[in-house]
Structures are given as structure tokens and as C-alpha cells.
Design brief:
Layout: E1 10-11, E2 24-26, E3 34-35, E4 41-51, E5 58-62, E6 71-76, E7 81-86, E8 95-100, E9 106-111, E10 120-125, E11 130-134, E12 136-138, E13 141-142, E14 146-149, E15 156-161, E16 170-175, E17 180-185, E18 188-194, E19 199-205, E20 214-219, E21 224-230, E22 236-243, E23 248-254, E24 263-268, E25 273-279, E26 285-292, E27 297-304, E28 310-316, E29 321-326, E30 330-336, E31 343-347, E32 356-361, E33 366-394, E34 403-408, E35 423-427, E36 435-438, E37 447-451, E38 460-465, E39 468-475, E40 478-481, E41 485-486, E42 490-496, E43 505-512, E44 515-523, E45 529-537, E46 541-547, E47 556-561, E48 564-568, E49 575-577, E50 585-591, E51 600-605, E52 608-612, E53 624-627, E54 633-637, E55 646-653, E56 660-668, E57 674-676, E58 680-683, E59 690-692, E60 701-704, E61 709-729, E62 732-737, E63 746-751, E64 753-757, E65 768-772, H1 773-776, E66 780-789, E67 798-805, E68 811-816, E69 830-831, E70 838-842, E71 851-856, E72 862-866, E73 880-881, E74 891-894, E75 903-908, E76 911-915, E77 927-930, E78 936-941, E79 950-955, ...
Length: 1058
């Protein structure tokens, strides 16, 4: 997204690193800063860090603003920020505030520390060896964080516990490296106590029945819970230690059996279980139980039930599965969050007197509520095979029931044996015997398919591996293999009846040196393969299907090639089916959903699960979103027996360092469309989940195979489950601009919401305030691009945005004023031709008035310049075609040829191309400028001092310069900074000499290029972690460029000073 404002306001750059410069030296002058070549100082020592990232891993519920409605408080450890989502009628008002706290934080405690009746926020700052306290001032304001040192370094998991009975509560922290816990009394270090190996979680309660608060510490490295007994005066002593499962990462207290005594439960991550320690009310262990869970349980939450006892919720990190566990009756409901969750919390969010469950997703930057008793489905293991390399469903005898073909896994698989051949095992439901099929002479097998390939009775079995296949026929109750057939580059086999004669053929997916190829072959009488047709494609081949569109001749083929839908209808070239805003397609399923005689499709795409009516029309129908979440596989079946097709969408999810298969079932609705059920999740498999029918009952089953594990068949049944319901997202794109006309840059975040933080003129920012987009732009779901300026010259900036409609696929050009909500009936400025239209703001026609450039990518690339009138108005657009290749192309306005007119620099698959500006808002046909593909823009300047503008780019080899030559041509890249992953080239101090900026994640390097082409860099070590971006802007309004260093947490600004 470009969204350039005033041309001198800001430029975005990427990350940098230093490795191969000619010279890397340190600069000890300038008071821990960097002396620029023009004499000014870049004040690195006085740099100001502001953190607003939202990646929550801790969550609590409380009413912080005193309005009677609970709020959600989230801590983002790596971002070093606290976010409060203020409560509202729908569990969240869509309004949130984020405070910058420290470089890293851990955990949350909500407690009134000063007795003013308002709840304060506490988190640990382990890198500062302190706890951070944000005092509640009321009116939705928290004071700046205050750091209070702990007695032991590296505090984590703060908890407020009244240990002395006189209030306010003490703060208890854990210290993993020191194997201890610490206590702060009146925010001063009071006591520390060694408790054992790996203290990671803490619970409190009266465990011995003496009326005094005690502590329970989960020891992750000791597989135990250590009780710490309180004396009621603040003193602590070690109590009993109780063994639990391996690696307990969470502990909670509650009355789980209804006997009135406090019990404990732990999430034992490496044991895949929950341990329950039943207390007797006197500090002794009455009983211990263990409940199996999904892999890697990490979070627990306790919710009161109607009997006065407690129900336990368990979150397993690998699958993001939640289990509601009533320890008197067992697991009664299960469900999975569609975004991987990292934390659970409970509280009365809607004021009905009952606690609800909420979750936090770090990877999706999302908070949501858990809905119990939601319509859903469950998966129960039915049976399993022996250890299997792979497993495939095959209806070999054409009886409508699937057999499971298993490639057996054995110890000898690890031994290379050139004489070995492959084999299969056939497993049938409710049959104890396993049939073996010898696949000799095939040495190994990647997959098998079945079809009727010849005129003889019975079916044929096709087994293949890379570059080879064998076809087996059933003869006298035995499978007989034909000759081994070499098919160079073979990657997949599909069975089709393309000519409709009842005899099936094969489609062979191949990868050759010349590219991808799809061969249509049939089985000849001598057992060889006879080629019927062959088609070359660009990009890797995905799913393929034969399509009967009612015409004469062979059926067409719908192919995914290079993540694009391609239709082979027998013409000279396959036709690309381009869909507006759909950049990549991974899977499809076809059906005439609206019964109009034309095929429709549901698609797994890069922008979610979509439905497209009349897919083969010219043009196809406009996409409609079924689900914002993406998918990797689709199955269309009538799962619930109502004679309507349902959708089972599977998503292979590897976020957060764990892998799973997420299953979401959409049931066909009587009025059309689909209704989503609660999702379920399974541990990731090397293969895929397949729908199978094993018997004559009314339900379909699921086959799941994992590499070298038994293939498992799961029964599907319908009932109630735990569903997820997102209530807040902090996933925004940020930029800097002067929103209030004070000359200081402010922070503006746009996406599914709007966030604003005002600059303070010293390099810092106020807390970030976020509002729901629907409150400001009714009917809008998301902002994709924006141009920001004070268009009406009233002193406050406005944004012209590309806003996607909430009730459709299209986007509109709309005016967004951060301080004003648009009326619901306010018409858009312009209906746009593409959902992903992008904007850029600059003077494109040379009249010194800002114009608005709008451009779109595939399937219909075009652009228009909306000429500005200098009073906030723009002329109507006149759209013209432009040669752009992707759905969301990268285009940069820049005067690269030095003629005073803005050009457009575009990145394409064949390199960088230049659309030269004609000076009247039009652009010439593209001309090749450089064959460089990929990489990121890092600046445009006369790097080699020859009077022509050059480009600085970030490529895999580092920061390079593309040096301009007469006529606009560029020569081979010149390396400025080897191995840099990002950087910037800019004249920071206006002395006419360029500074070269690069970073290595923990250091900044500032350099210059000498007249002879040599480069010299000065290294500055940084305190921030994970430097991921460098850019320049005048943040403080003093007319001098400052340096912005981006990390995952936020921004650190180093200002220039004399």
C-alpha cells in the first residue's frame, strides 16, 4: 500500500544488516550518537522507543473504566505493550487503547494498588528486573508505566495476592533462572523463596483451610506443583510438593469435585494431559487424577458452574483445541479456534452474572469469545491401521464402500535396498483380515488411484512414485502388476473419463526442465500408455478436474497452475480464469449451486474461502466470501443427510511453530448459502484428511494419515461444541503523518479499524487509541489503501481510502475523517473497478497541486489520475489500461529519468519496468529498466554522483545500487552493503552527501560512499531487539530528518540535533 502524503513527509524502507562492508568501525563521539558528515548529530543514545504492537499472550477480564461492563486486558510480551479493549454491548465496543510499557513484558495482574477504587494494571518487565505498574486514572486513562525493581532478576507471571490480610495485595513474581518466587510489599522487594526447578505458573487459594492465602507453583522442570504456605502476616514457607505430568506450564485452583475444598489442576504440556490434585481442605492431597488432552496443553481457565463448583477449560497449543472438562462427568464439549490461540481467561462480559470464556491469538492479533453449546460436530476415533507411510481411500470393488490402501511403514524403510519393491495393505472396516498387494516391480510408492482403464471387467490399480508408475489388474482374486513404466518428472496421476466413453484415462502431472506438463494418456492393449494430448503450463500443477460444460468433443480440463485457474478447452492455449482480487487459488470444487445450468465453484484462495457463480462465464461471476479464513482443501458432500451440499474446509496451519489440520464444516442452508459450525482440529499429518464412506450407515467418516503413524478413521457426528467468535483485531497497517496540523508526525493505523497516536515532538507518542471501522465508515469491512493529507486545508488531515464493502466483494473510494463518523447514507466518492485498488498521492500533471493516482492489478489492470483542484476536490477519473501482472502490483511514483515528471516504476516477473510520465497525468507504454526481480525499494538518489538518479534496492545478496545510465538504462547492481536484508539511502542532514543506513538486528551501521566507489560504515550497537526496518521522516517538526528503527514491538526514533 503506497498512500504517499506530502512528498517530503515520509518514505518507507525495510530492514538492514551489516556484514561485508569495506570498513566497519565504531564512533565514540557525539555522546553515544552518530556524527553526520554535515556536522549534525544523530542522537542514538537519546532515542525514544514507542511500542504499539498487538500480539497477545496473556489476557484478563475486569471493569477498568467503572462503567459496569467488563473490559478485556491483553499483554503482548514481545511487543512490550498493554492493550485494553473497552467493553460494549457485543462483548467489545471495538474501541481499544494501547500503552507502551517496556522492551519485553510477561503476564498480567489487575489490582487496586493505591486504594482509590480503580483497578491498576501490573505486568513484569523481565529485561528490566522489575514489575511495571500502570495506574488507573479513570476516564479510560492509565498513567505512564512505573518500574519497581524486584529482589530477584528476571521476573515473570506477576500475581496479586493478599498475603498479610491488610491490603493492598502483595505482588508475587516467579523467577525461573533463580528457581524462586519473590514478593513485593508496598511495591518494595520483601522476600524471595527458592521453590524448585522451572517455576512458570502460579495459583493462589486457601489450600490448608486456615483462612490464609497460600500459593501453588507449577515447576515445569520438576514435573511437580510446589505448595507455598502463607502465615497470614506475609511470611511464606515451603509446603508439600505434589508430582504431576511432565512439563506443567499452567496451574489453576478451583473446587472441581464439589466438596468445598480447593483443588489444583495443571496443564502438562509434554504428557498431553491435565493433572488434577484433589485437596482435602487441610493442605493434604486426597486424590490425583489425569485426563488426556490434545497435544501440548498450555493454558487453563476456571469457570463457575450452576452447582457452585467449577468447570475447567483446557487449551492445547498444537491444535488450538479447547476442551470443556467437568471433572465429575468428563469432557463434554470440544472445539477449536480458527486462529491459533495462546491464552484463555474467564469473566462476566455481558453482565448476566455468568462467566464467559475469552481467548487471545498472538499470530492473528485477535481476541475472541468462546461460545459453548454451539452447533457443531465431533470426531471420535473409530479404528486405525498398522504403522503407515501413507494411506489412501480406494473403492476397489465398486460397491460404494471405501477400502483403505496403506503403504506400510517398517524398520527396514530406513535402509537403502535397491532390490526391494513396494507393497500395499488393504484394510476394510469391521474386517480383521488385511489383504497384501505386491507392487513389484515398483521400488517405492507415493500414491495409488483406481479406475476402469480397459475393456475388461473389473478395475485397475495405478501406483506411482516420482518418475515411475505401474498398473495392476485384478485376475482370479489377485492383483497382477504390468511392466514398470518410466514417466520422467511424474508428480501426480488423476483418473478421468475425458471423452465420455465409460472407459477412463489418466492425466499425468509432470515437472520437466522446460516447465510443467499435463499429459492425457490411455492404457493400450499391450499395457503401454498411449498419449492422447499434452499441454504445457507455467508454474507448478495443482488440482485437476475434467469438466463437462455440455459441448461436443472431449471434456475440458480445469487446472490450477502457478496458483492460477486455467481452463484447457482444446484451444491453442489454456485460458486463465482471472478473478478480481484473487491472487492465488489452491483448491476448487465445482457444482451448479443455484441450479441455473451453469457450473459454480467454491475456491480455497489467498483471501479466504470464496464462492464464484458461473465460473466459466465471460466474465465469471463476482466472488462472494464464504469465510475470511483460508483453506487448503475442500470437500463437497451432504454430511447431514438433508440433500443439500455442505462444505468441509481444511486448513493446514503451521503458525506459531506448531502444525495442525483445522476442519470447518459449513452446512447448506435452506435459503441458500451455508451456515458455519464450530471448528475441530487434528494434529498435523504429512498427508491430508479425506472423506470416506466405509459402510451403509448414514454418516461419512474421515481418514487421517500421519507419516509413519497408523492411519486413523474418525466417525463424524453432530451435536454441540465450543465455537469461537472474534470480537477484536489489532491487525493494522501503520504510517506516519501530521493529523492535527501541529507540524509533528502522528501515528495512523488502518485496516479493519482505525488507530491514532499523537506525536509529542520529542520522538515519542501518546497511547494508541483504536476504533472500529464500522463506527467511522458504516458499511465498510476493511481499508486496503489510503492517501492522507489536509485536503480541505482546515488544519486536520483526512484520508481518502479504498474501503471494501461489508456486504459484498467490491470496494469504494471513501472519505475518512478520524474525528468524524460518516452517516450510513453517505454515498462513496467513487465506485472502484477492483476490490484491491491502490492509491498514491502526488503532483502527476505538473500544476503543483496534489493529484490522486488509482491503479488496479489483474484481471483488468488499469489506472486513472484524479486531478486535484487544490481545495480538496478531485476530477472524475478516466481509466486507461496499464501493463501490470499481479492482483496487488507494486508500483512506485518516481522521477527516475530526471525530466521533472513523475514516472511509474513497476516490478514484474521480467524485472523492473518504467512507465514514463507524460506530464499530463498519462503514462507511456512500459520500457524495461532493469532485469532485477524481487527485492525491496530502499531509496532513489544519485548514488554514484554522475548526475543521474539511481535506485537502492534490497535483494538476497544485500543492499545494492542500480545505477542509471543515459536513456534511463541501468547496469549490473553495485553492492553497497553485502548480506544486508534491508536498508535506506538518504541525505539525512541536507549536506548533499548520502548516508547509507543498514542494520543487523542488533546494530545500526551508518556509512558513506566515497568518490572512488568505496564504502565505509560506522557500527552502533542497539538496545532494541529484532531491528526489522529503517526509514526517515521529520518526526518532531524541526525541519530535520530523523531516523525510525522498526522492530516487532514498534518504533524507536533517533532525532537529529546540532
Amino acid at each position: 500500500m503506497l498512500g504517499l502524503m506530502r512528498r517530503s513527509v515520509f518514505v518507507w524502507f525495510g530492514l538492514a544488516a551489516c556484514a561485508g562492508a569495506l570498513a566497519c568501525v565504531r564512533d565514540d563521539g557525539c555522546d553515544d550518537g552518530h556524527r553526520l558528515f554535515g556536522g549534525r548529530c544523530l542522537d542514538l543514545g537519546g532515542a525514544v522507543a514507542s511500542r504499539w504492537g498487538f500480539a497477545p499472550e496473556a489476557l484478563q477480564v475486569a471493569d477498568l473504566d467503572g462503567d459496569g461492563v467488563a473490559d478485556l486486558v491483553a499483554a503482548s510480551p514481545d511487543a512490550g505493550a498493554i492493550t485494553i479493549v473497552w467493553g460494549g454491548k457485543d462483548m467489545s465496543s471495538g474501541t481499544a487503547t494501547t500503552w507502551s510499557v517496556a522492551a519485553a513484558i510477561d503476564g498480567l495482574a489487575l489490582v487496586d494498588l493505591d486504594g482509590d477504587g480503580r483497578i491498576d494494571v501490573v505486568t513484569a518487565a523481565p529485561d528490566d528486573d522489575a514489575v511495571a505498574v500502570l495506574r488507573n486514572r479513570g476516564a479510560r486513562e492509565l498513567a505512564a508505566p512505573e518500574l519497581y525493581p524486584t529482589l530477584v532478576p528476571g521476573p515473570t507471571a506477576p500475581r496479586a495476592v493478599d498475603l498479610d490480610g491488610r491490603g493492598p495485595p502483595e505482588l508475587v513474581t516467579l523467577h525461573r533462572d533463580a528457581r524462586s518466587l519473590g514478593v513485593l510489599l508496598d511495591l518494595k522487594p520483601f522476600v524471595a523463596l527458592e521453590v524448585g526447578l522451572g517455576p512458570v505458573a502460579l495459583a493462589d487459594g486457601d489450600f490448608d483451610g486456615d483462612g490464609r492465602r497460600d500459593l501453588a507453583v507449577a515447576l515445569s522442570e520438576a514435573a511437580a506443583v510446589q505448595l507455598v504456605v502463607g502465615d497470614g502476616a506475609g511470611g511464606l514457607s515451603l509446603g508439600p510438593r505434589h508430582p504431576v505430568g511432565v512439563a506443567p506450564f499452567a496451574v489453576v485452583a478451583g473446587d472441581f469435585d464439589g466438596d468445598g475444598a480447593q483443588d489444583l489442576a495443571t496443564a502438562d504440556a509434554l504428557a498431553d494431559a491435565v493433572s488434577v490434585l484433589y485437596g482435602d481442605g487441610a493442605g493434604r492431597l486426597r486424590a490425583r487424577a489425569s485426563w488426556p488432552t490434545d497435544p501440548d496443553p498450555r493454558a487453563l481457565a476456571v469457570v463457575p458452574d450452576e452447582t457452585g463448583g467449577h468447570v475447567l477449560y483446557v487449551l492445547s497449543y498444537q491444535t488450538s483445541t479447547m476442551q470443556r472438562l467437568d471433572l465429575r462427568r468428563g469432557v463434554d464439549q470440544v472445539g477449536a479456534t480458527r486462529e491459533r490461540a495462546a491464552a484463555l481467561a474467564a469473566g462476566d462480559l455481558d453482565g448476566d452474572g455468568r462467566s464467559e470464556l475469552v481467548y487471545a491469538s498472538r499470530s492473528a492479533r485477535e481476541l475472541g469469545r468462546v461460545v459453548p453449546d454451539a452447533p457443531g460436530f465431533s470426531l471420535a476415533p473409530r479404528w486405525e491401521t498398522g504403522p503407515a507411510r501413507r494411506a489412501f481411500p480406494l473403492d476397489l470393488d465398486d460397491d460404494g464402500h471405501d477400502e483403505i490402501a496403506v503403504v506400510p511403514a517398517a524398520a527396514e524403510d530406513a535402509v537403502v535396498d535397491l532390490e526391494r519393491t513396494a507393497s500395499l495393505q488393504l484394510w476394510r472396516a469391521d474386517v480383521d483380515e488385511v489383504a497384501d498387494i505386491d507392487l513389484a516391480p515398483l521400488p517405492r510408492v507415493d500414491a495409488v488411484v483406481v479406475g476402469e482403464l480397459d475393456a475388461r471387467p473389473g478395475r485397475e490399480l495405478v501406483a506411482w512414485s516420482y518418475g515411475q508408475l505401474v498398473i495392476l489388474g485384478e485376475r482370479a482374486d489377485a492383483w497382477v502388476a504390468g511392466e514398470l513404466l518410466d514417466v520422467p518428472g511424474l508428480m501426480g496421476v488423476v483418473v478421468v473419463d475425458r471423452d465420455g466413453d465409460g472407459r477412463q484415462e489418466l492425466l499425468l502431472k509432470r515437472i520437466l526442465a522446460s516447465g510443467s506438463r499435463l499429459d492425457h494418456v490411455e492404457l493400450a492393449e499391450d499395457g503401454s500408455l498411449r498419449e492422447l494430448a499434452s499441454r504445457a503450463f507455467t508454474g507448478a500443477l495443482g488440482p485437476v478436474a475434467a469438466v463437462d460444460r455440455g459441448g461436443a468433443g472431449p471434456r475440458d480440463l480445469l487446472v490450477i497452475a502457478g496458483n492460477q485457474l486455467r481452463l484447457d478447452d482444446g484451444g491453442d492455449e489454456p485460458r486463465t480464469i482471472a478473478l478480481d482480487g484473487v491472487g492465488g487459488v489452491g483448491e476448487f470444487a465445482l457444482h451448479d449451486f443455484d441450479a441455473d445450468g451453469r457450473l459454480d465453484a467454491v475456491l480455497c484462495t489467498s483471501v479466504g474461502l470464496l464462492r464464484v457463480d458461473d465460473l466459466f462465464g465471460d466474465p465469471p461471476g463476482e466472488p462472494t466470501r464464504v469465510d475470511r479464513n483460508g483453506c487448503s482443501q475442500i470437500d463437497l458432500h451432504d454430511f447431514d443427510g438433508d440433500e443439500r451440499l455442505d462444505i468441509l474446509a481444511e486448513q493446514s496451519d503451521a503458525s506459531g511453530g506448531a502444525t495442525r489440520n483445522l476442519l470447518t464444516l459449513w452446512l447448506g442452508a435452506e435459503t441458500g448459502g451455508w451456515t458455519r459450525l464450530a471448528s475441530q482440529s487434528l494434529p498435523a499429518s504429512a498427508g491430508r484428511t479425506r472423506v470416506v464412506r466405509l459402510d451403509d450407515d448414514s454418516w461419512l467418516d474421515l481418514l487421517v494419515d500421519e507419516l509413519d503413524q497408523p492411519a486413523r478413521v474418525y466417525d463424524m457426528s453432530f451435536g454441540t461444541a465450543l465455537a469461537d467468535e472474534p470480537v477484536f483485531t489489532g491487525d493494522l497497517g501503520h504510517r506516519f503523518t501530521d493529523l492535527d496540523g501541529d507540524g509533528v508526525l502522528d501515528l495512523l493505523g488502518l485496516g479493519r479499524g482505525l488507530a491514532v497516536a499523537h506525536g509529542d515532538g520529542q520522538g515519542g507518542f501518546s497511547p494508541v487509541h483504536q476504533r472500529a471501522l464500522a463506527d467511522l465508515l458504516p458499511g465498510a469491512e476493511r481499508i486496503w489503501s489510503a492517501a492522507v493529507d489536509d485536503f480541505d486545508r482546515d488544519g486536520d488531515a483526512e484520508a481518502i481510502v479504498v474501503a471494501q464493502r461489508a456486504d459484498g466483494w467490491r470496494s469504494d473510494l471513501r472519505l475518512l475523517e478520524p474525528g468524524r463518523a460518516a452517516s450510513p447514507d453517505e454515498p462513496p466518492l467513487l465506485e472502484l473497478p477492483s476490490v484491491f485498488t491502490q492509491l498514491a498521492l502526488a503532483d502527476f500533471d505538473g500544476d503543483r497541486v496534489l493529484d490522486l493516482l488509482a491503479y488496479t492489478g489483474l484481471p483488468d489492470p488499469q489506472y486513472a489520475v484524479l486531478r486535484g483542484d487544490g481545495r480538496g476536490g478531485f476530477a472524475d477519473p478516466s481509466w486507461s489500461p496499464i501493463a501490470l501482472e499481479t492482483t496487488a502490483p507494486t508500483v512506485r511514483p518516481i522521477d527516475l529519468d530526471g525530466d521533472g515528471r513523475l514516472d511509474l516504476l513497476a516490478s514484474r516477473s521480467d524485472g523492473l519496468v518504467l512507465h514514463r510520465g507524460l506530464g499530463d497525468g498519462r503514462f507511456a507504454e512500459p520500457q524495461p529498466w532493469h532485469p532485477l526481480t524481487g527485492g525491496g525499494f530502499a531509496g532513489a538518489a544519485d548514488i554514484d554522483r554522475d548526475g543521474r538518479r539511481d535506485l537502492a534496492m534490497l535483494v538476497q545478496g544485500g543492499l545494492v545500487a542500480l545505477l542509471g545510465r543515459p536513456g534511463g538504462a541501468a547496469v549490473s547492481p553495485a553492492v553497497l552493503f553485502a548480506d544486508a536484508s534491508a536498508g535506506a539511502v538518504v541525505d539525512l542532514d541536507g549536506d548533499g552527501q548520502l548516508e547509507l543506513l543498514a542494520g543487523t538486528g542488533d546494530a545500526l551501521h551508518v556509512g558513506r560512499r566515497e568518490a572512488d566507489g568505496r564504502t565505509t560504515f560506522v557500527r552502533h550497537d542497539l538496545e532494541l531487539k529484532g531491528l526489522s526496518g529503517i526509514f526517515t521522516a521529520d518526526f518532531d517538526g524541526d525541519g530535520l530528518l530523523d531516523l525510525g528503527l522498526r522492530s516487532g514491538a514498534g518504533l524507536t526514533i533517533a532525532r537529529q540535533r546540532p
